[in-house]
Specification:
The protein is α+β, with helices and mostly antiparallel strands and 350 residues long. It has two domains: 2-173, Double Stranded RNA Binding Domain (2-Layer Sandwich); 184-348, Porin. It has four helices and 15 strands. The protein has an eight-stranded antiparallel barrel with strand order 6-7-8-9-10-11-12-15. Helix 1 packs antiparallel against helix 3 (120-134) and helix 2 crosses helix 3. The radius of gyration is 30 Å and the shape is rod-shaped. Residues 1-6, 11-41 and 143-181 have low confidence and may be disordered.
Amino acid sequence: MRSRTLRQAALLALGCSVIGFGSIAALAAGPSAAPPVAAPSPAPVASNVPFEWSAPEGCPGRAVVLDRLTELLDADRTSWDRFETVRGRITRGEAAFELELELILGRRIGRRSFATRDCADLAQAAAATLALVLDPAWDWDTEPTPAPEAATPSAPSSEADSSSAADPGAPDVAREPRPSAPVELQLGAEGVLDATTLGRSAFGLGLLGRARLALGETRVAAELFGTWLPARSIDVRPTESVEFGLLAAGIRACNWPTFALGVCAELEAGRLSASGIGARADREAFDTWIAPGASVVLESRLFGALLLSSRVSLLAPLLRPKYFVNGTEGVHEVPAAAVRVALGLALPVQ
């Protein structure tokens, strides 16, 4: 009927204005025009509909999408019977939030993808898309039934692309699910302040490489890092002093319950050096450094893909050598706990 056609066109314009992608346009086809009828008032969508929704913290939840769908379409529980499951998932990309909608009916999987810098817009895009495909005027029964997979030869990518272009509204048939949570690879550098390890506050440098993966509403990461604390001097007498330095590398395993906060367990190993200055310039010692620990990270996006992070770490050295001069004069002992603060930048690896 004409009212449904007009409503579909309005929903299409709304969805496209939110996202700007062509995915919603694939759903714009409607039946032939007919005399207008009065549209019924919206009714709440049942909470037990086969709609699965996954989104990071701070993004709209399932209830928000269903509420917005109610504002757009009078869809009751029976409107969902044409699908076994409708699944929506928001993930955070390098420069934008990404939404993938899967419309599942048997072996048919129709996909719609959207991206925007504000994840709140994706709830409106999802509601607009659902309003179109759940409208009774939209007939999915005309879609062809796929042949058994064993009897269907795989088509070249060019043929598949041309088929998709010819019928953009048709769901993808027997296609392997695409990964919706790719691994983020990042490289970064840090300025490090260690308050206790060398007997005095020491400034140093750090490098890190990170692989991060989104799992549901959380992210996990594995990091390889290196830390260099240049030599710091401790005076023994006016003409004598001892310099201590540290060169170490390690690994971290981190969990990011939110976009901004991460907690990590780490293990660091390296070499602690001590060398005499002045009258004891010929004395030098090297000791093994092994220190497990934990850290808390706060991260924010400066601009584009550039990330700013701050880290506070607490390490517990397993080996605590003591350093003496003249056999009895204590100069320094590695403390039972080492506290570090770091501030750094990181960029994705394309």
